[in-house]
Amino acid sequence: MAYTPLRISTVKPNRDLTFDLYIFFKETYLKYHDKGAGLDEEKYGKLRKQKIAKFYITEDDEPHYQAFLDKLLEDTMSDPNVSVDEKVNVVDGACSTAIERMQEDPESEQSYKMTNKAAKSLRQVVEQNPEALKKIFGKKASEADLIIKHSLNVSALSLKLAQKMKCNDEQLDNIATAGLIHDVGITRLNKQDQELFKKEKSKYTSDDKRIYGLHVKDAVQALKDKPWVNAEVMELVINHEETLSGSGPNKKKKLSVSEMVLSLVNTYDKYVLTTGCTPGEAIKDMMINELGNYELDLINKFKEVLKAEGLLD
């Protein structure tokens, strides 16, 4: 029997479940809770305290979970009595679950559609709650979840910069989705090459640069010719490492506004994650090191966004 993971934050207490829940313990999937009833507050609280991050469901229960998650997101986003923290937690869980599904099975229509829905909820929570972005960036991630954390960061922050650049609604939705899936190709590299994600770009050898660039081609290979993948989302994924200097794996120099936004935010967030520097230090370094790769006006607008969102130290 096949099992797929889901984030515990997408299973709320006292909400009837339409799927069985499993935990992974000592190399075995153990049923933890039967469908038909909700988890009580006490049981749920204990799991959170034990830092259990994931449940698992069977492949047969995937459609039931997706319907459950859709309703949970709709109810959470529309309820004015739900705190911003709770909204961010639910959306974070939905996005992280979707990214993980895409990493495991990027050719799946169900995985892509789940990601698309999660991206729309992320856009909603970021647009409607001024403090949401800071809360998203304040969340810590384990080493194993670093690419998931990066993807969520890029999606959320790209939305804000794209708004600043006056992108329309369709462009914003596409940027949000592309931000979540842009690095699915990294998990298709071998384990040693995946470590290049954690290496500072300025320290790449020519071989490192060539090998790391393969993650773009791997993502394209997985997503191409899929009728459910939006064409603009595909272009954004293809070109998320491109710069105006032509230094990206595709050597492309003419970029759309959406492509420039996603590429800049991707470069910024990876720089912060891999160097450990502060956002203020990162943007200062980028003003020097990335000039020529991105227009000065775009970098300045990005700095304004970071400042407005309370992300500069």
Q: Under the CATH scheme, which architecture of the largest domain would be assigned? A: Orthogonal Bundle
Order of helices and strands: EEEHEHHHHHHHHHHHH
Low-pLDDT stretches:
none
Identify the CATH homologous superfamily of the largest domain. Hypothetical protein af1432
Count the domains.
2
Contiguous helical run count: 13
Give the strand tally.
Answer: 4
**What is the strand arrangement across the widest sheet?**
1-4
Q: How much helical structure, as a percent, in the residues?
A: 55-70%
Distance between the termini: 49 Å
Rg calc: 19 Å
- Sketch the major β-sheet: 2 strands, antiparallel
Overall residue-averaged pLDDT value: 93
Could you name the CATH topology of the largest domain? Hypothetical protein af1432
| Beta-strand percentage range | 5-15%
Shape: globular
Structural class: mainly alpha
CATH class bucket of the largest domain = Mainly Alpha
Give a description of the structure.
With 313 residues, the chain is mainly α. A two-stranded antiparallel ribbon has the order 1-4. It has a two-stranded antiparallel ribbon with strand order 2-3. The longest helix has 21 residues.
Helix and strand layout, with pairings?
Elements: E1 3-7, E2 21-25, E3 28-33, H1 41-49, E4 54-58, H2 62-78, H3 84-104, H4 109-128, H5 132-138, H6 146-164, H7 169-181, H8 191-194, H9 206-223, H10 231-238, H11 257-275, H12 279-289, H13 296-308
Antiparallel strand pairs: 1-4, 2-3
Helix pairs in contact: 2-3, 2-4, 3-4, 3-6, 4-6, 4-7, 6-7, 6-11, 7-10, 12-13
